[in-house]
Amino acid sequence: MNFVREEMASRATGSWQHWAANHHLEFNGSHVSRKETRPMAKAVVSGKSLTKSEIATNIAEVVGITKKQVIAVLEAQASLAYKEAKNVYTIPGLGKLKLRDVPARKVRIPFGPDAGKEIMKKASKKVRFTVAKAAKDAILGVTK
């Protein structure tokens, strides 16, 4: 650890702090110590959305399989949904994913030098997700 202390002490520019952070080291005056690394992510319900890792950890604990197996299942489900969206792909308990054709239509330009002029907007395809009634009731609470 002496070489680390000497290297960090010799750098007057402050760039050693970045280097020490990348190597999980803390430098307090003449003392160099190794930072504790964080444990595996835990799913915490807060105002933020869960990450893929947190989702996998939570499902793995509930179901009793490994995190890698959960990630493989999630990726397989996403892959299947991408392929089947042109028909209708139902995710049980959550909703339906479908591809929708939007026909060509006339639109009016609201501002600019061509304001008020009508143009034709081309036909397009949109992906739509419809939330299942069971999911709405579970999230919002059953209303009567």
For CATH, the homologous superfamily of the largest domain is named as IHF-like DNA-binding proteins
Shape field: extended
- CATH topological fold name of the largest domain: HU Protein, Chain A
Question: Strand-and-helix sequence, N→C?
Answer: HHEEHHEEEEEH
Strand content: 25-35%
Major sheet details: 3 strands, antiparallel
**Residue ranges: pLDDT <50 for 5 or more in a row?**
none
Q: What is the average per-residue confidence, as pLDDT, rounded to a whole number?
A: 80
Total tally of structural domains: 3
Number of distinct helices = 5
Quaternary state reads: single chain
- CATH C-level class of the largest domain: Few Secondary Structures
- Structural category is alpha+beta
Instruction: Please give the number of β-strands.
Output: 7
**Computed CA radius of gyration, to the nearest angstrom:** 27 Å
Spatial strand arrangement across the major sheet: 3-4-7
CATH architecture of the largest domain, please?
A: Irregular
Description:
With 144 residues, the chain is an alpha+beta fold. A hairpin with a 2-residue loop joins strand 1 (25-28) and strand 2 (31-34). The termini are far apart. Helix content is 38%, strand content 25%. The mean pLDDT is 80. It has helices at residues 2-10, 16-22, 52-63, 67-84, 133-140, and strands spanning 25-28, 31-34, 88-91, 95-102, 105-108, 118-121, 124-131. Helix 3 packs across helix 4. The strands form 3 sheets. A 3-stranded antiparallel β-sheet has the order 3-4-7. The longest helix is centred in the middle third of the chain and has 18 residues, at 67-84. It has 3 domains: 1-37, no CATH class; 39-81, no CATH class; 85-144, IHF-like DNA-binding proteins (HU Protein, Chain A), CATH 4.10.520.
